Amino acid sequence: MLSHRHLSRLTTDAQAIERRLRARISPWELFALATAFGLLAGFVWAHAVLNILPNDFHFYLRAAGGDFRGYYYAYWMLPVFSLLAQVPPLAAYAAWATINILCVFFATRIFGGRVLPALLSFQMLYMVFVGQIMGIIIGGLALLWWGLHRRSWALAGLGLAVACTKFHIGIVVGAILLLTVDISWRDRLRVLIVPAIVLAVSLVVYPLWPLDLLSTMRTDPANDWGSITLWRWIGPYALLLWIPPLLLPLSRPQRMVALTATLAFAIPYFQQTDLIALFALPIGWAYPLLGNLGYLFFAVYWEGLQLLVIVPLLVYASIIVPASYRWLNSLRWHAANPPG
Fold first, then answer.
1. Rounded-to-integer distance, Cα 319 and Cα 124, Å
2. Closest CA to 294 of 269, 314, 271
3. What is the pTM (predicted TM-score) of this model?
4. In the 8-state DSSP scheme, what is residue 199?
């Protein structure tokens, strides 16, 4: 069960966030970073020996050259991949993975999550090994949260634009963050200025790219082997699970964590590596450690990864079950004690 002590780290106090961001790296954090970078060095060596480029990173570089098979992201990230394509592939991969690791570290500092279990989770190491973008997406969300509390709308907007490179994560979690923080609707709209500019420029450089992306999704759909969502089994009924975290009386941190957990199992597609977005939040040690059930992949393959739906379900239940119990008790009390 998530305690108040855990969730209190998800503060809306800008000064507390600044202190956490500037705090000295602890021995455990240093160990986590050293281990992550050590494993990255091993991955670079393995890819060099096998003479292969990490699967997802290969798709990104290929998209920079105009081949969009396997590329399902916003085109405004293509200039970054074009730049990386100018250096030797393994050096580009090492730089890319380094940025992803540092972004996850940054996100745990901003949101108050635990660095050690997040950086050394199966999801993190899988992401680094195949060269995925998820660390940067989480870094964008953290930049959004930081900018909101600094009241720096351009900084927050930049973070949102980066996060929305992966649409179903950036748009949904970005909306959760924007609606969680206590600012005016005018300020929320000001945050959207930078993403709107980024989108407009991308449409000038890559005209009608959203239609091209839809065509890619239709002709070369992403595989869902590592997707953990309940949509696989119950279809659109999974959408009903959004109702409790949206309507129950919850604190802002509780609602934010519950909605982020819901995202993992109540939309059509959610890769197990995307759980790092949940692990960056202050949910304690146990849930990120449960993410290491992903190592079942080596025993039962993709079915082992699909079992990871248990992680966000447990986070969800730890908030929704007690809140539902309190709400029902409140209804009973009011029924037994009518006014007048």
1. 25
2. 271
3. 0.92
4. H
